Amino acid sequence: MSLVKVTIDNIEVEVESGTTILNAARKIGGAVVPPTMCYYSKLEGSGGKCRSCLVKVAQGSTKDPRPMPKLVASCRTAVMDGMVVQNITSPEVMENRRAITEFLLLNHPLDCPVCDQAGECHLQDLSYEHGLVDTETVEERRTFAPIDIGDKIKLHMNRCILCYRCVMVADQLTDQRVHGVLGRGDHSEISTHITKAIDNDFSGNMIDVCPVGALTDKTFRFKSRVWFTKPFDAHRDCPKCSGKVVLWKKGDEILRVTGRKDKYGELEDFICNDCRFEHKENTDWTIEGPRKIERHSVISQNHYEKISKPEIQDNNS
Amino acid sequence: MFAHQSIPVTMAQQILLNNIKVPGLASFDVYRKLGGYTSVEKTLKNFTPDEVTAEVKKSGLRGRGGAGFPAGMKWGFIDKSTNNPRYFVCNFDESEPGTFKDRHIGQLNPHQLIEGMILGSYALGARTSYIYIRGELFYVLRIIEKAIEEAYANGFLGENILGSGYSLDLYCQPGGGAYICGEETALIESLEGKRGNPRIKPPFPAIVGLYDCPTVVNNVETISALPWIMNNGADAYSAIGIANSKGTKLISACGHINKPGIYEIELGLPVEEFIYSDQYCGGIRNGNKLKAVVAGGSSVPILPAELILKTAKGEPRLMSYESLAEGGFETGTMLGSGGFIVMDDTTCIVKNLLTFARFYHHESCGQCSPCREGTGWMEKILQRIEDGRGTMKDIDLLVGISKHIEGNTICPLGDAAAWPVASAVRHFRQEFEDHVKLQRCPLSK
Ligand SMILES: Cc1cc2nc3c(=O)[nH]c(=O)nc-3n(C[C@H](O)[C@H](O)[C@H](O)COP(=O)(O)O)c2cc1C
Ligand code: SF4
Ligand code: SF4
Ligand code: FES
């Protein structure tokens, strides 16, 4: 693979050709990484839908330095050698990102105080970082009654932002998919095929990939605010999946089991429903130690890390 | 069921609507007697596929589906380096509000379309081709299916056409009847049997199209012009029209004119002549004053009377790609798909815009957030203003929303929803303000 150079917000990085702008930015890390609501590196064909990762291409490539006429979805646009990208350095990008945030919130209830996803929610983060203090909308939001899709998952369609990630999980991880998108436009909804329940070894991953609180784990719902739980990395010998999970404990009680996520909130491994829903005893697991949670998350509050003090050199000895 | 047959049709140039009034034209025998399929005989014998593409390029034919992209150039992008099959697909979705020309060809002259399909398929090296037709046009589907059967029976489709060694299978496939299925990548998804959601581009269909193979999608009218071009030559075609607008164009004219109908015009005809001459629209109904025109189907910017008749530079506006676009989106518009909607001075622009907005809201596929949410938001604000519940701030909010949709969506449906809004407020702001001030539509009794 040949390497290409791309400059994002004045920082140059070298990546393999074919890499997307988003992944090039992730290689740099920090503030130049565009937000993502629908892209999910582990799901084939994801991205391109929410438009929250739009960036400006100020120079197409060394060969063709013309700027691209429109903002592009960084999660679906490949870099070219000599490409110059503006993300947080472009007022146009920031203005449009704010607008996208407002679009995403237009039909979203913002019921964070009662939502199980609060503290882990990408829309909450996006609104905090890019939203307006005031809303310009006076429109009524669309409402749906929550429904059980299967015995372990509850769908709160009100909160869904139609990122399609769960549809892709169902498509790519489970056989005999029975759930998808119904309807068009802002009448679209995630649903199961007529009255079918989702009952499949890997269906629980839909909960983990949902960026908002639309798909929730019925074995955990309302048991605790997530920041009151303590996450531990743990594993078990599982014949179906890697068995590598995070246990979310309150005291000694395991309240929830999820997959392990990277710093972009994406699962490292998909886990099976057995690990997720059926193993809530401490004896089921080998606990590796406390889970490190990214600093900016509310979950990391009060999880102090021990600082190793540098040794004091005694120059007189 | 055949209500469309009563639409008056005028023929200035005899390219697309030639013989359209001949009884029984939809049958193979009548069509053939009038010289039908001669272009296939001529082309398969005398032209290589690349020579056909070159001829179409030279003719200056531009896509008639809306964007006006040069047809030959589009064919030139097809990836011929792979061993994968290639597909030629006819876009017979005809979904643009105000545009009703393609169904006319399909219903009355299906063999002309099939003849064009054979020529295009040959040029691209397609072994299988599809006519994707809007599901609601079931009666046209039946007519086309019958014509396809006749073409097979007479050796113009199937194995080894006219002994040339070239074989082609042609299918007519009804779609689900959603506006978005007219967008070429959504059409391809739908043709593959999936939900008609547009794909993210690139890759473009010429590289990754139907069943992930190189594909060209062209409009019915574009394809129907091919037999004439191959029979008469590229030079004869490019002698018709002006500048970079060559040949003839079907215009479906509707609204407040004396003679709504489908007209074949030579590109370059002055707009004023098109609206007022008896040969075409015959002037405004009841002798009323012209207020505004949407020139190319509901998705293009609306222009007030003074700017549709003359450009901002004071030159006569012509029915051509360049002239209609003169002035950009500030003072110009687009030829689009040729859906010419005329409004007289009894028209409420806000109400008219609300109708358009409701359509785009209803038809958004819902994949991307600016379009899914923004189209609905614009409709609600327009409804408020029309009902007399709007505020002055709502007018700017509308423009702001349209700006944030435009260019930020997966496919141009978002732009199609945004442009009419931005242009209507630009040119008719007073009317929006009057709604707010009077708290009702100023034109309602
Ligand atoms: C929302 C939307 C709807 C469209 N509907 C149609 C249609 O009904 N018929 C059509 O020919 N093109 C339609 N188009 C344009 C097609 O995507 C495509 O450009 C066209 O079929 C190409 O044909 P041409 O090159 O012959 O113009 C639509 C585009 C969009 C964005
Ligand atoms: S999904 Fe996120 S933003 Fe929405 S209510 Fe729940 S926590 Fe709040
Ligand atoms: S339910 Fe969640 S994962 Fe599924 S489309 Fe909605 S927001 Fe995305
Ligand atoms: S993350 Fe790129 S469009 Fe959603």
From TrEMBL, chain A:
Cofactor(s) essential for the protein: [4Fe-4S] cluster; [2Fe-2S] cluster
Record Pfam families: Fer2_4, Fer4_Nqo3, NADH-G_4Fe-4S_3
Domain of life: Bacteria
InterPro entries linked: 2Fe-2S_ferredoxin-like_sf, 2Fe-2S_ferredoxin-type, NADH_UbQ_OxRdtase_ferredoxin, NADH_UbQ_OxRdtase_Gsu_4Fe4S-bd, Prok_molybdopt-oxidoreductase
Subcellular location: Membrane
KW 4Fe-4S (keyword) present: yes
Transmembrane feature ranges: none
A molecular-function term among this protein's GO annotations: oxidoreductase activity
GO terms for cellular component: membrane
Residue ranges annotated for the 2Fe-2S ferredoxin-type domain, each copy included: 2-91
Keyword entries, A-Z: 2Fe-2S, 4Fe-4S, Iron, Iron-sulfur, Membrane, Metal-binding, NAD, Translocase
Family: Belongs to the complex I 75 kDa subunit family.
Protein's name in the database: NADH-ubiquinone oxidoreductase chain G
Organism of derivation: Aquipluma nitroreducens
